[in-house]
């Protein structure tokens, strides 16, 4: 460690590795620091990612890491970046081990942390029968009894999407009350609206057979879509003074079209800097951040 690099990329999942690949191919010295706790570690398979459909996320990451490591100027280290600060004309990153490294540019691909509703039986099914994205997981539960659990006002949009994969019940949780127009749209999509709050997930873990309601009834459900609130998985963006925008599910790092944050020399990509969470979106954003960081080394900020 204790070396100077052109760029340090913090986060070694889809966004971070994609960014580092551009820099390695530009023959720049790049270090990737990764704590090995990606957001999608709860899912057994990744879907909808061109050329990688059906692979385990860890398998995709391991293969990409091996490909990146074949470039002589690329280095990958496992560890958690605890602090990052600007000192004179470079950035100093300190790991939890105490080791440090410096760089002329930083790319934050630190991801986000899902905050699930406090509902007995939900956590242990996350990524298996309790799901986040219908585009990522809907095909695998197609034609089963599907539910959508409201966590915020935008859940109505998810409730309108999910019927393309199967018969859908929308549980409002007392959080959202649809307007007459929205009710008509939901009915046109054959969405059943259930206003009694869900209090428990039923079935043998990790499977799901239904949901217990506050009034004692049990509704048969095989898979439940939940849009969790999110928080930054790392404090580094805040430490560095980056500004944030309030996304629909939680804060996101403010970036321009080339993934430059409000702090000169710091770029950000992936779920931490986008309201749209998807492996393909993350990888594409990483490519943009890597290219932009490289260009900034040549042309300045």
Which bin fits the share of residues in helices? 10-25%
Task: Please write the string of helix (H) and strand (E) elements.
Answer: EHEHEEEEEEHEHEHEEEEEEHEEEH
Task: Indicate the CATH topology of the largest domain.
Answer: FAD/NAD(P)-binding domain
The outline comes out as elongated
Number of individual domains: 2
Rg over CA atoms, rounded to whole Å, is 21 Å
Total number of β-strand segments?
A: 19
Top-tier CATH class of the largest domain? Alpha Beta
Identify low-pLDDT runs.
none
Helix segment count?
7
Terminus-to-terminus distance: 26 Å
CATH architecture of the largest domain: 3-Layer(bba) Sandwich
CATH H-level superfamily of the largest domain: FAD/NAD(P)-binding domain
Q: What's the mean pLDDT score?
A: 95
* Helix/strand structural class: alpha/beta
How many strands, which pairing sense, and closed or not: the largest β-sheet? Answer: 7 strands, mixed
Summarize the structure in words.
- Keywords: Flavoprotein, Oxidoreductase.
- InterPro entries: FAD/NAD-bd_sf, FAD/NAD-binding_dom, Ferredoxin-NADP_redctase_2.
- Pfam families: Pyr_redox_2.
- Residues 5-129, 184-286 form the FAD/NAD(P)-binding domain.
- The structure is a single chain.
- With 301 residues, the protein is an alpha/beta fold.
- It has two domains: 4-114 and 229-299, FAD/NAD(P)-binding domain (3-Layer(bba) Sandwich), CATH 3.50.50; 117-226, FAD/NAD(P)-binding domain (3-Layer(bba) Sandwich), CATH 3.50.50.
- The chain has seven helices and 19 strands.
- It has helices spanning 14-25, 57-69, 134-137, 155-161, 180-188, 236-240, 279-299, and strands at 4-10, 30-34, 74-78, 81-87, 90-95, 100-108, 112-115, 130-131, 146-149, 168-171, 192-194, 198-202, 210-213, 218-220, 223-226, 229-232, 244-246, 251-253, 266-268.
- The strands form five sheets. Strands 1, 2, 3, 4, 5, 6 and 19 form a seven-stranded mixed beta sheet that branches. Strands 8-15-9-10-11 form a five-stranded parallel beta sheet, covered by helices on one side. It has a three-stranded antiparallel beta sheet with strand order 12-13-14, with no helix packed on it.
- Strand 17 and strand 18 (251-253) form a beta hairpin.
- Helix 1 packs parallel to helix 2.
- It is elongated, with a radius of gyration of 21 Å.
